[in-house]
Amino acid sequence: MNEVLDVLHREFVYLWYYFDVQLRQIFGYWVLGILLGSCVSVFLKDKIHGLLRSMSESRLGLWGIVPASLLGIASPLCMYGTIPLAASFSRSVMRDEWLASFMMCSILLNPQLIIYSTALGATALTVRIVSCFLCGIAAGLLIWVFQRGKPFFRFDGFDEPVSHDTDPNLPLRLLKNIGRNIRATGPYFLLGVLLSALFQRYVPEDLMTAAFGGNEAFGVLMAATIGVPLYACGGGTIPLLQAWLMDGMSMGSAAAFMITGPSTKITNLGALKIVLGMRHFLIYLAFVMAFSFFTGLVVNLLI
Question: Which pTM was predicted?
Answer without folding.
Answer: 0.86
